[in-house]
């Protein structure tokens, strides 16, 4: 039995040394990254039993992904693609300070995961799971994955598993209108919604006071819980008729990639451990702050480190 099962694409991230340009570098560092596996890693490192399901090429690259995730305590249950055109998605990340900024280049079209169907995925893994999680990145990757995402969320709901979903809008994958239509088609199958404030505005047209936005989403789509993340302004959650707000915890940022996933992983880990919503917000915020100090997409943290951040800033929660 898994506390949490996540479903989505995991890629290899290729980056030049800091300060070098992709067009000139002679070396690339290799990391593993994907929203849903990032969440699974954070939850596993914080003591929860986490399983990641997906489809991978039956190759050294696919095995690299499995090996990395397992090294962080995540169980992997994948469909292996042995076809001649099987491939793993990659993305190139070039760190850059202002005014240049960080550049991301995707090379993920046609990845094996884009053909994944419910029939070939281990749907039975959801039967005994407490939470099933995926994000808006997954249905953006192909029409097949949009259908599979819908089917998995429905299957999880039918077994009584709590379903959690993060909008996670990516403008390089689809338009706001198409994303919004897909999100709203999935909302009837979702219990817990995570949404960045900017994504709710861009794709759902939900703008204004964050508490009103969160309450509006919960009311209009009958979610159990809505968590609205607000960047440096912290987060807001509505649950069971109550509103909770959480500040961010200060961090010296070394690598911000994966911060949102770390927040989700920390939040879910605390809820699965019996914590209430305000405690989960604090745990998510602390996990996110620690992730910013670590290179790569993954929140390589420990429960003791997260507890220490929360305890040092015990006044960060408002109810």
UniProtKB/TrEMBL annotation:
> EC annotation?
2.7.1.178
Fetch the CDD domains from UniProt: KdgK (cd01166)
Query: Which Pfam families does UniProt cross-reference here?
Result: PfkB
Carbohydrate kinase PfkB domain sequence ranges? 1-296
Q: Which domain of life is it from?
A: Archaea
GO MF annotations in UniProt: kinase activity
Q: Which InterPro entries match?
A: Carb_kinase_PfkB-like, KDG_KDGal_kin_Halo, PfkB_dom, Ribo/fructo_kinase, Ribokinase-like
What are the record keywords, sorted?
Kinase, Transferase
SUPFAM superfamilies for this protein: Ribokinase-like
Identify its protein family: Belongs to the carbohydrate kinase PfkB family.
Read off the PANTHER family from this record: 2-DEHYDRO-3-DEOXYGLUCONOKINASE_2-DEHYDRO-3-DEOXYGALACTONOKINASE, SUGAR KINASE
- Identification of the protein by name: Bifunctional 2-dehydro-3-deoxygluconokinase/2-dehydro-3-deoxygalactonokinase
What species is given as this protein's source? Halobellus rarus
Q: Which gene encodes it?
A: kdgK1
């Amino acid at each position: 039995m898994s506390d949490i099962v996540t479903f989505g694409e995991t890629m290899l991230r290729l980056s030049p040394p800091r300060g070098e340009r992709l067009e000139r570098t002679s070396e690339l560092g290799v990391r593993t990254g994907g929203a849903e596996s990032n969440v699974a890693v954070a939850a596993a490192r914080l003591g929860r039993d986490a399983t990641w399901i997906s489809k991978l090429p039956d190759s050294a690259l696919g095995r690299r992904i499995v090996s990395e995730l397992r090294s962080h305590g995540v169980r992997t249950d994948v469909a292996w693609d042995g076809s001649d055109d099987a491939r793993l998605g990659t993305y190139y990340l070039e760190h850059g300070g202002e005014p240049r900024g960080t550049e991301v280049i995707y090379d993920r079209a046609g990845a094996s995961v884009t053909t994944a169907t419910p029939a070939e995925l281990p749907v039975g893994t959801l039967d005994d799971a407490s939470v099933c999680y995926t994000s808006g990145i997954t249905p953006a990757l192909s029409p097949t994955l949009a259908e599979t995402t819908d089917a998995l969320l429905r299957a999880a709901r039918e077994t009584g598993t709590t379903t959690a979903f993060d909008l996670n809008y990516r403008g390089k994958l689809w338009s706001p209108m198409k994303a919004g239509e897909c999100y709203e088609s999935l909302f009837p199958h979702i219990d817990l919604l995570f949404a960045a404030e900017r994504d709710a505005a861009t794709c759902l047209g939900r703008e204004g006071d964050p508490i009103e936005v969160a309450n509006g989403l919960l009311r209009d789509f009958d979610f159990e819980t809505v968590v609205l993340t607000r960047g440096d302004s912290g987060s807001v959650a509505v649950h069971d008729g109550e509103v909770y707000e959480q500040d961010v915890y200060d961090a010296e940022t070394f690598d911000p990639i994966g911060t949102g996933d770390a927040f989700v992983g920390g939040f879910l880990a605390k809820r699965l451990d019996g914590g209430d919503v305000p405690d989960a917000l604090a745990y998510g915020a602390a996990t996110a702050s620690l992730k910013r100090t670590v290179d790569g997409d993954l929140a390589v943290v420990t429960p003791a480190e997260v507890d220490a951040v929360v305890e040092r800033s015990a006044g960060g929660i408002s109810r």
